[in-house]
Design brief:
By secondary structure, the chain is mainly alpha-helical. It has one domain. The protein is built from four helices and no strands.
């Protein structure tokens, strides 16, 4: 997957996140952090390599939102797989 495709996926994921309003504090915190991580990745011109902490937050978000937001979970899982396959 090239950089433009990753940018497109990140932008779609960011839009999905903006439409979600979790009822719990943990969910709100995870989405804020994940949104900041996505913005950071989009701002990087060449390298789309996230920090290890982002991968941990991404995994925690998948676990947390799995039942309540299956579409978000699918998008997060796709991003996690892409980044993992890229050796990140």
């Amino acid at each position: 997957m090239n950089s433009q495709e990753i940018d497109k996926l990140l932008e779609q994921l960011n839009k999905e996140i903006e439409g979600i309003k979790p009822d719990d504090e943990k969910g709100q915190k995870l989405l804020r952090e994940l949104s900041a991580d996505i913005r950071e990745l989009l701002e990087r011109a060449e390298s789309k390599q996230p920090l290890p902490s982002m991968m941990e937050r991404l995994e925690a978000s998948i676990d947390h939102f799995e039942l309540a937001y299956p579409e978000l979970t699918t998008a997060l899982s796709s991003l996690f797989t892409i980044l993992s396959n890229a050796g990140i």
